[in-house]
Amino acid sequence: MYRRYSESFKLKILSELSTGNYTKRDLGRIYGIQNSTINEWIKKYDRKDLMNTRIIVETKDEITRIKALQKEIEQLRELLVKKDLDHLILDSYLEVAAEKLGYKDTEELKKKLSKKA
Asked: Are the C-beta atoms of 42 and 49 separated by less than 8 Å?
């Protein structure tokens, strides 16, 4: 079933939506209209102010805190990369040591070293 709505009806719906007294869902129930239809009318009449938008209000303190947290995240990333590199270097040293000392692999060297400790 295809319904046609008059221009005045569409504008009436948008007007009611703009008052803030009704949501799209409310108007859909009252008039038997799909939310997607109302969204099409919003686009057609260029009423972006009626689309579901998220407004973020940030105070100066919040912005400062966010920047501090972002800086801390970056520092933690750098530390993690350094730790990973240190681990790779240690593994490389163990491989060379195991080879020079005549062990078949690093696990054998680690077992030998842990027994001595």
From this structure: no
The tokens for 70 are 């972002």
Domain ranges of the chain: 7-50, 60-116
DSSP 20: T
Asked if 97 and 109 count as a contact pair (C-beta separation under 8 A), the reply is yes
pLDDT digits (tens, 9 = 90+) for 59-92: 889 889 999 999 999 999 999 999 999 999 999 9
- Angstrom distances, CA of residue 12 to CA of 9, 34, 51, 63: 5, 15, 16, 40
Name the strand (E) or helix (H) holding 44.
helix 35-44
Residues whose CB falls within 8 Å of the CB of residue 18, separated by 6 or more in sequence, listed in order: 47, 49, 50
